[in-house]
Design goal:
By secondary structure, this protein is of the alpha/beta class. The chain has helices spanning 27-40, 60-73, 90-95, 122-135, 146-157, 181-189, 205-216, 238-251, 259-266; strands spanning 6-8, 44-47, 49-50, 56-57, 77-80, 103-107, 111-113, 116-118, 138-143, 166-171, 196-201, 219-222, 229-231, 234-235. Helix 1 packs parallel to helix 2 (60-73) and helix 1 runs parallel beside helix 8. Bound molecules: (5S)-5-amino-3-OXO-hexanoic acid and zinc ion.
Length: 274
């Protein structure tokens, strides 16, 4: 099996400062977290940005500062969110692509998101994809429900996507597909040929889904965006969630990928040496 790519989603858009003291808000904190995550075995960092007071922002200047700070600290792959937060306009969500991150997420369909709706109509997806093409950004397809794979195939038929792609199954969002090994196997079986995939289990499913992915030859996403706890009642730090997955994978005979190896697996360009 190929080396395990561990993505860390350290902050997200929904978790509030009252829920945990371990969210990185500032560009410097994001860079420190990215460095610690890299040292723990992570090779991709999935970036949302916050203001200094912890509120969410998709301000391009803030993303630029975060990108520069992370790149100055580590060689980890930087992946921007174009999902943003509920209520953001599609233009706002796509605006950060002008910074040409190596990767960015593309959610492949609308989904209930708790009591809200995370809206990703075909016009929204097409608009984000066109910006990805314009700025040469590699998508990671976020799949919250099985129909999202059909939507991705439709975008491919329209010529806006070429398979194979890297796909991330986000399982366990209230309103989306539940996090179970059966559901994961079903989704993997439905993937277009040669796609690589990872899984992000929400809440306590994060570890269960990681274990399944390690065994199945997939890749893993962890981090506070998806799960606040290391164990029952014990808040987690991002890097220890990564370190635990790396430890388990090593024990299972799957070494973790360096960012350089992850770029090779995903077909990304090598990082230019400054
Ligand atoms: N914050 C969620 C509404 C992504 O980053 O691409 C969407 C999200 C997905 O987090
Ligand atoms: Zn996200």
């Amino acid at each position: 099996m190929e080396p395990l790519i561990i993505t860390c989603a350290p902050v997200g858009a929904e978790i509030t400062p009252e829920q945990t003291p371990y969210l990185p808000y500032t560009p410097v904190q994001l860079a420190q977290t990215a460095k610690a995550v890299r040292e723990a075995g992570g090779s991709i960092v999935h970036v949302h940005c916050r203001n200094d007071d912890g509120t969410n922002t998709h301000d391009v200047e803030r993303f630029r500062q975060a990108y520069d700070a992370i790149r100055g600290a580590t060689d980890i792959i930087v992946q921007f969110s174009t999902g943003g937060a509920i209520g953001m306009t599609p233009e706002e969500r796509a605006s950060v692509l002008q910074l040409r991150p190596e990767m960015a997420t593309l959610t492949c369909g609308s989904v209930n998101f708790g009591d809200d709706i995370f809206e990703n109509s075909f016009p929204i997806m097409r608009g984000i994809l066109r910006k990805m093409h314009e700025f040469g950004v590699r998508p990671e397809l976020e799949i919250f429900d099985k129909g999202h794979l059909a939507n991705a195939r439709r975008l491919a038929k329209e010529g806006l996507l070429q398979f194979p792609q890297h796909v991330d199954f986000v399982l366990g969002v209230p309103g989306g597909m539940e996090a179970s090994v059966d559901n994961l196997c079903d989704l993997v079986a439905d993937l277009p040929d040669e796609c690589t995939w990872s899984v992000a289990g929400i809440g306590r499913a994060q570890l269960q889904m990681a274990l399944a992915a390690i065994a199945m030859g997939g890749h893993v996403r962890v981090g506070l965006e998806d799960n606040l706890y290391y164990s029952k009642g014990r808040l987690a730090r991002n890097e220890e969630l990564v370190a635990r997955v790396a430890r388990i994978a090593e024990e299972a005979g799957r070494p973790v990928a360096t960012p350089e190896q992850a770029r090779e697996i995903l077909g990304l360009k090598k990082l230019a040496v400054a």
